[in-house]
């Protein structure tokens, strides 16, 4: 599927101009949670925070680790669930890693976490890129 914005020409996976305009996908695939559905799924599982650890670098690609679903009990965060399953929620929670870094091509070693906070519906990527710390809000 071509990911070119509407104001750019479609290209093939090799980067050459496409012979024809690609059709945009109008609905998410059945395995994709989008928008409010992610927050609803976290709520159904009793979680207020989700943490997705990841790492990657050029030439080695990237990986995610065990995802933690946590609940704020008023004094501290407590585990609700830990899993490495490949369900809809897992794909949705990992998506900011791949959207931001793709295959990690051209990047030094990056280690971080994607943190989903249900209370304010905020998603943040925090970590280290080489020797520098970073924090980025995901739109």
Description:
This protein has 139 residues and is α+β, with helices and mostly antiparallel strands. It has one domain (36-138). The chain has 2 helices and 7 strands, in the order αββββαβββ. It has helices spanning 36-44, 88-101, and strands at 49-57, 61-64, 67-72, 77-83, 110-117, 122-129, 132-138. Strands 1, 2, 3, 4, 5, 6 and 7 form a 7-stranded antiparallel sheet that branches. The longest helix is centred in the C-terminal third of the chain and has 14 residues, at 88-101. The protein is globular and about 55 Å long.
| Assembly category | single chain
What is the molecular shape?
globular
Count of DSSP-assigned helices: 2
* Number of discrete domains: 1
The residue-averaged pLDDT reads: 82
The Rg value, from CA coordinates, equals 17 Å
Low-confidence stretches: none
Taking the sheet with the most strands, its summary is:
7 strands, antiparallel
What layout of secondary structure does this protein have?
Elements lengths: L35 H9 L4 E9 L3 E4 L2 E6 L4 E7 L4 H14 L8 E8 L4 E8 L2 E7 L1
Task: Summarize it.
Strands 1, 2, 3, 4, 5, 6 and 7 form a 7-stranded antiparallel beta sheet that branches. The protein is an alpha+beta fold.
């Amino acid at each position: 599927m071509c990911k070119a914005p509407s104001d750019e020409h479609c290209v093939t996976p090799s980067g050459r101009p496409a012979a024809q305009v690609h059709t945009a996908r109008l609905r998410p695939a059945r395995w994709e949670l989008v928008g409010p559905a992610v927050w609803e799924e976290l709520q159904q599982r009793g979680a207020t925070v989700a943490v997705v650890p990841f790492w990657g670098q050029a030439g080695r690609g990237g990986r995610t680790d065990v995802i933690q679903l946590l609940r704020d009990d008023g004094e501290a965060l407590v585990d609700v669930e830990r899993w490495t399953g490949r369900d809809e929620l897992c794909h949705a929670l990992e998506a900011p890693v791949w959207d931001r870094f793709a295959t990690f091509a051209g990047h030094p070693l990056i280690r971080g976490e994607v943190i989903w906070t249900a209370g304010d519906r905020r998603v943040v990527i925090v970590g280290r890129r080489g020797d520098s710390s970073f924090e980025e809000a995901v739109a």
